[in-house]
Amino acid sequence: MDPATEPAPKVVKSDAEWRAQLSPAEYQVLRQAGTERPFTGEYTDTKTQGVYSCRACGAELFRSDAKFESHCGWPSFFTPLAGDAVIERVDTSLGMRRVEVLCATCHSHLGHVFEGEGYPTPTDLRYCINSISLRLEPDAG
In what residue span(s) does the MsrB domain sit (predicted)? Predict the structure, then answer.
């Protein structure tokens, strides 16, 4: 999706408000499209059942039953919770062509999505998401 044609965020805050709400590391990833180091994130190996939400705005993004072992160093999902939960945008930074994944509610950076890597998933997609972009709400039980 082209940034000029994507829907406006439903949650809009000033840069100062985001900085006050988020830790410096969260801000760097969520608001400046940074990347946490591989194999360091809180949810990389988590098996807990529940819903992963955007750490910035709380919008529900992914279910744990769509999470899979990709051994790439970041949590990986084969599909978002709903088709309109995320925005996908072409990213040509770092001299490569990738597809960036943003929270559709607040337009915070989550990670990237990759296709055709051969993982045995129903979609052949890998939503490679920074743990620091997420918050897990475990299922009741």
Answer: 15-139
Q: Which residues face 89 on adjacent strands?
A: 100
* Count: domains in the chain: 1
Buried b (16+ CB within 10 A) or exposed e, 23-37: eeebbbbbbebebbe
Range of the domain at 121: 15-138
Q: Which residues are catalytic?
A: 128
Phi, psi of 137 (to 5 degrees): -105, 105
End-to-end CA distance of the chain: 39
Burial class of 39 by CB neighbour count within 10 A (0 to 12, 13 to 18, 19+): exposed
